[in-house]
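Quick log. Single chain, no ligands specified.
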Amino acid sequence: PGFAQEKQFQLNPKDDTFGNRVTLVSDTLSVPCDVERDSTHGNQIMCYTRAMPAGQYMVRVSVNGVSIPDSNLCRGDYKSYQCSFYPVWYRTPTIYSLSPVSGPPGTLVTLRGRIFSDVYGSNTATSSNGLNIRFLRAYMGGMPCELLKPESDELYDLRLDSETSQWGYMSCKMTGTYVGHHNLSYILDSDYGRSLSEINLYKVSALDKLSMFQTFAEVTGVSPSMGSVLGGTLLTIYGRFFDQTDRPARVLVGDDRITCSTAKHEMNNKVTVYPGGRGLKMEVWNQTRPRYLTDIWSYNVNTTGYWTQWIDSMPHVFALEIDYFSSRSSGFLVPPASANYTIYLHCDDRCELYLSNSSRPEDKVKVAFQTSFVADFLQRESQKSKVLALEEGKPYYIEILHQEYSGAASVNLAIFQEDSSFTEDQTDNAVNEVQDIEVKYDVFDEEQDQFQSVPQQLWWKHP
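-> predicted structure:
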């Protein structure tokens, strides 16, 4: 009779057994295959596979709730190659790196990976490496990530390393206005499919979410610029992307303006700087060679070679052409939860990390340092702070002093929290807990008491 045709198009069925159902089954796992109803007819079913481990999977099909028996699968040889599916690593597109990792909605992002093809759409027969594979679409956080420039057939960037390579770069522009956390993926046609991202691309956010990219809103202006220290001033904040968030602003007008009433300002002469927007302020002085890193504190905006930028992600890698410079990065660390933390420092070439127990720069103390280049965070004990008990939501002033001699230059921080809801299988940011369980027991010799049997005739008998 063939596969289901009419019933598979019912809307809002009373049960989910109608139409065609496809399941891929291995010796240890069963994974649904999502039927593509528009391409399915009486002699053919098409379905989209889901993520699954590599191996052999047999096809199981049910039609209107009735499973096809094994005797009707490949003439009874249901484990044959013709009736099996094999997910393999060499047919899996990858994402090896992503840049940038944060920005406002609409950011142009670039990935590097094993992309197999430099063709998008169906107007070109084959890729430059000879493979008959095409990019179908890309997604960032559930929304399309556009490969083509608006109103044109020109790609942002889609290229292979060479005519014999499967590795290359792809750029796409995010759509939508959601502010939050996103993951990037793309889909190829033929016998390939959805991309697999390297595990080190998934970062743990302050909201305890795993993501590859974070979008943020933008503030473009404030009006009025002055008001009463006793509060009550109606303040308007202008910007973009205030509307699409998980936690909307208290008062919202459209998507480009927030109005709020200021609170009374408590005068505090001890406060010299205030927490502001996201990221750190990085100040750089070219062609400087301080004897001690603390000499950087004597530099200012009038010192020769000064320039500045804001950074909001780590590691920060400097341009290769910049040599013999010093930098100071300052801002606030705001813990997402009250817990014990350890801060790790790594740079090229030398650096020092300072932290305050308050928001005051004057209270800062050195908590970690690196005197010369090393490969990573874990090479020297000095790169690690002591265990710090930090409070949720409290801003702690943080500062990094850094010096570069020549060659590559970078600065990086890592913050370790003792408790996590993630494992090493989900992100490189997590460390699995290892417990040593010691079992002790005592050994005693068994002792048995022996009794002589009593003759049966001596037992008391009731009349």
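The first strand starts at residue 20 and ends at 25.
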